[in-house]
Amino acid sequence: MVAKGDMFYAWAAEAACQERGECGGAVTALLTHALRSGMVDAVLAVKRGQDIYDAVPTLITDPEDMAETAGSLHCGTLLLSKLLKNYLDGAENMRIGITVKGCDAMGLYELAKRNQVNLDNVLMIGVNCGGSVSPVTARKMIREKFGVDPDDVVKEEIDKGQFIIQTKDGQHKGISMDELEDEGYGRRPNCRRCKMKVPRQADLACGNWGVIGDKAGKATFVEVCSEKGANLLDAAEKAGAVVTEPANPKGIEIRGKVENSMLRLGDKWRKRYFEDLGEGKERLQKIREETGRCIKCYACIENCPICYCVECSTKKSYLVEPGKVPPPFMFHLIRYAHIADSCINCGQCEEHCAMDIPNSLYMHALQVEMEKMFGHTPGVNMELPVLALVEEKSERDRLAATGSDQIFDIFK
User: Fold this and answer.
1) In the record, which residues are listed under signal peptide (predicted)?
2) What CA–CA distance (Å, rounded) separates 65 from 218?
């Protein structure tokens, strides 16, 4: 029997699934089995759109359609947690399987704390993530650094510290990520600072790190992180959907070294970004200047997984004077205060900003300071944030009835 904490090499039993999938197609096979067996009603995943720079969210109910989602898209920068909340009612009445990166899993946990997602109905298969590249940056990088027409690239991957492309004529070319990032290309800034590389909040944590020997490139490393994940892997193997063998001990060691190396790299980038941001008044002035470009399009709020309020305080005229562009600095201060202890550094506020304001950097820098003070890391478990947490609708009713803003008694 499979148990929490077990580690395996796994691959799809079906040859066609092995061919289509990444590293033996284990993730595709597991989700296909979850659908066929009725373990989930649907799978929320990502498929390739027009090209490798176009990641499209898709809801799949027919197991035969799972093949569309096979493989990886490092130039797709979607965050699935907010999509599940907004368009699938937070899995309240539907059992949903979902493939998650670290930031997706963290977003789901933070939404679940706020009663916006029902994790009991969510089956998460986590995938190791060294980071993603903005589609615009990727096209520019491929053209300028690789000397290749971006439209001629049919596949990309990040492996052994390199960004590697494959062109239509079958040629491969790779360049060191360190070189690319030192020149302003490479991964998104928030991905460089990220320290959630193996999403163990998921039911299974999968990836190619630690797969060695004759299974390298042909199997997926699977770490069992929950009873739900154990049940899926056990059932899928018994049904003949996947084949497994115990992970090579040397591979387990290598996987740990890769993860630790990525964590050290995250520390390096945090130090560089946060030191450049300055401290105290210097930091405040820099943020005021940068946010002075804001056109108040609300893309940051619409895409943030922590922003779930029905009545956003930034739209209250007594807090933020309406009709002004750029908006008063209070607009941004409300945002920072709202997620001070809960920012998961997903980068969506920066990715979608029409004015290229480094919102994610400011949010993340504040959250890290809160983490140092209180020891709370957002998104890693269901521990409540530092600030009082309330369910919005019932709390607004209470405030209206009492006229009081003292909410802390609710935890006694």
Assistant:
1) none
2) 22
Element (H, E) at 7: strand 7-12
Measure CA 306 to chain center: 13
Q: Tokens standing for 29?
A: 């096979």
Q: Give the pTM.
A: 0.91
Q: Which helix (H) or strand (E) holds 167?
A: strand 162-167
- 61-90 pLDDT, tens digit each: 999 999 888 878 888 888 999 999 999 999
| Tokens found for residue 387 | 């600030």
Quickly tell me which residue has 């996947």 as its tokens: 242
Which of 59, 80, 68, 183 has the alpha carbon at shortest distance from 129? 80
Question: Which pLDDT tens digit goes with each residue over 291-340?
Answer: 999 999 999 999 999 888 777 889 988 889 998 999 999 999 998 888 88
Of 9, 27, 20, nearest in space to 211 by CA: 9
Q: Pick from 14, 103, 10, 23: which is nearest to 351 by CA?
A: 103
Helix axes 227-238, 26-36, angle to 10 degrees: 90
Which segments within 76-161 are labelled E, that is strand? Answer: 96-100, 122-127, 153-159
